[in-house]
Amino acid sequence: DWEGNSVRTVLARGPGFDPQNQKKKKKKKKKKKKKKKKKKKKKKKKKKKKKKKKKKK
Questions:
Q1: 18 backbone φψ class: left, alpha, beta (φ>0; ψ -120 to 50)
Q2: Tens digits of per-residue pLDDT, 15-42?
Q3: I need a labelling partner for 52 at 20 to 30 A (CA). Which of 8, 11, 20, 38 fits?
């Protein structure tokens, strides 16, 4: 599957596009997204608790 996809991306983007470069970037982005999502969820929970307290007051 990966080999067919990389050839298609090269044809779509152009001859100067490297499929190996794209693979490395995709792996790094996935790791960063997972870490950011966990941090954002914790921040959102804290903000929601503060908003509820303000509404009760």
A1: beta
A2: 565 666 665 555 556 666 666 666 666 6
A3: 38
